[in-house]
Every structure is written in C-alpha cells, then in structure tokens.
Amino acid sequence: MPSSIEYIEKLRKSNLRPTKQRIKICEVLFNADKTFHFTISDLAKMIEVNANQKISLATVYNTIHAFEKKGYLKEIAINSSQTYFDTNTSNHHHFFDEKEKELIDLENDGLDPINIKKNIPGKIIKSVEVLVKVDVDK
Amino acid sequence: MPSSIEYIEKLRKSNLRPTKQRIKICEVLFNADKTFHFTISDLAKMIEVNANQKISLATVYNTIHAFEKKGYLKEIAINSSQTYFDTNTSNHHHFFDEKEKELIDLENDGLDPINIKKNIPGKIIKSVEVLVKVDVDK
DNA sequence: AAATAGTTAATAATGATTCTAAATTGTATG
DNA sequence: CATACAATTTAGAATCATTATTAACTATTT
Ligand SMILES: [Mn+2]
Ligand SMILES: [Mn+2]
Ligand SMILES: [Zn+2]
Ligand SMILES: [Zn+2]
Asked: How far is CA B88 from the centre of its chain?
C-alpha cells in the first residue's frame, strides 16, 4: 500500500500537480488490495465514504481522464449507459455480467491466445479487447 | 433484394405490424448489397435521403430496438457517444477505426478461434466479442 | 512574497436516448 | 364496408452521463 508521498512523486513525474483531490483519488484507486473496475459514480461514492473531503464531480472526471491518458487506468469498451474504468492496466480481457452490470477480469491464461490474421492497410492495431457477456444460467 | 411484400411477411411472422415506417427501415437496412454498421443518426440520414416520408426519431429508435430483439440486428460494444448496430448478424468480430469512427468486420477466418477456458460459476456465456482498435500508422 | 500557470468546483450546456400522451393506423370482427 | 381496439407513431419533454465554462483557489517558480 503506497504512501501519500509515493503518489505525490508519481503525479509529479507525470506532470500532474499533486493536489489533495488527486492524491485522494490515487488512494481510493491504488491502495486497494486488488485491482477493480468502476464507473465514475462508483468512484464518487467510494470517495464520499472514504473521505473527509468532497470532490467535485467535474474534478473526478478530469482526474480519471488524466490518469487514463497517463496509463494509470484503462477504459473498457462495453455498451452501457456509463463508462467503465479498470485499475488493472495489464493486458487482459473481461467478462461482463449482464445481471449485475459488473466486470470480471479474464486474464490471458483464461483463454487461448488471440491472433489477428487480417490487417487493415495503413492502420496499426492499438488494442485487442475480448468481451464475454454472461448471464444467469436458468 | 427482397420486396416490400417479403418484409411484410417477415414483420408479421415476428409479431410486428408491418407499418410504412418499419417497411421503409427494412428496405434501408436489408436491401443493401452488403451488410453494414450504423448509428441511429446514420440511419436517420439514410432514411431522409432515401425516403419520400419522414420518420420520427422515436420511431427509428423503437424500430431498431424491436429489430434487435428479434435478432435482425446486432448491437456492437464500443465506447462511443453513440451506439452502433450491425446488419450482419452472423458470429463475427470488429475492427474499430478510431480516426474514422467506423467499424470494419473481422470475420472468424480473420483470427484464430476464440476459446474461453475460464468460466463464471452459475453464469453462462451469452456472447464473445473481439474489438480491435486501429488507428493511422504514423 | 508576488507572479504565473495549473487546478478545482459550481453550474450550465450538450447530446444521445428514453418517456409521455395524444393522434393515427393496422387488424379483427360483425 | 363499418366499428372497435390494441398497437404504433409522433412531437416534444425529460433524463442523465458527460463536457464546457469560468471565477476562485493553489502549487510552483522566481
Ligand atoms: Mn476517456
Ligand atoms: Mn438495445
Ligand atoms: Zn479488468
Ligand atoms: Zn459487423
């Protein structure tokens, strides 16, 4: 569990000023035992519970997008009314539980290697994401 | 290129009343030589160009969702401000051109078979979608 | 300590999608 | 065909996640 000082260094190295708000968001996101998936409103709730300070929703959005650009977070492609983010930035895939509206990691050892044979002239591959939608077995 | 009468039958078989609007939307979607990907606003423009009638946006939404439920269309998972649909309902995957905001089919023969080895207890797999994001090679 | 650029926060704006309720239409029935 | 009724369409309002605006605040540099 990194200390506040480590987040300050991390932020400075990324040319992001270490503000109270950004440090708090780092704590909420990166002090967890395990990586996790969240929406902005999930995160806002987590901050409320965890914090003695209030962070404006605009700041939460700005910070999350700044972190995403710096590679601290990944955005996950699903069709949902809300955007999902992931503190697990390793190369991996996802299950999406349609019932719980919840993402579950599908690590690379959970599926055969993905090998894209087709290519698009003049274009390079930026990412390959597998989304496995699941629902209750009934 | 199916005739209007065939769409009427198709709609009736699906318990959808064959209205002028639904038939027109069938024509725009299913008379094309090739399958294609579209957003609701794409489709609304196509109808405007193609049609001698105006279809309310609410009706376009209703119809597309009705068609999707009946399996005439697929919805595609990407992070975008707009939802994408596909008239190609076969099992296949996609490239997403970040620059053009355009989907390109990646048929099953364009990649090695996807084999999900992990499973989620109590849940069954509803779909497996691969999304390959591409951008200009520069 | 002052200057400066970066950041926050309240609030407004945006825009895709869904909702509402009244008018219209397709279909079944006599 | 005429009538009845449920399904559908429509314009417009509402919703809601996200982004924009901009004045106040703050971290950093000088
Ligand atoms: Mn983003
Ligand atoms: Mn849908
Ligand atoms: Zn993940
Ligand atoms: Zn497709």
From this structure: 6
